[in-house]
Amino acid sequence: MSARRGCSFGSGSPSNSSRRLLQNRVKCNCDNDAVIRTVRNGPNAGSKFYGCPLWPDTKCEMFKLINGTNVAEELQSQLLEMEVVQKFKDDKIKKLQSNKGSLEQELGEMRCEMNQVKIDIMKSNTDIVNLKLDLFAVCVLFIIMYCLK
Known about the structure:
- The protein is about 60% helix and about 5% strand.
- The longest helix is centred in the C-terminal third of the chain and has 81 residues, at about 70-149.
- It has a domain at about 15-110.
- The chain is mainly α.
């Protein structure tokens, strides 16, 4: 999950310093948050630079060298962003666990209700059978009384 400007992070919001750092993120040409990479070869080997997070699977060729004094600040900025995102995820997990508990309780109540409905249906089926037997007995008695007249 990428933190974007103006996003709300659940019940808590980022502190002023982390909000400022999140708003000052470097964007690449395809409007994603640029990531810090390290040059591996050539005269700038070991230098840090901003690059597209989708590279090499994109045509975005964003490349911006970072001077040495900003590397620590940028890494600290990324760390703060990751902490804010982690707090958001932790809050989300707590909410989901709370919802899970209430849903499990509701499911248990529904199962009890369903079992009671099954019992009621079985009782009504028994009542119907008894009514049929009673009706049959009344018919037999009626026939007997009619024949005796």
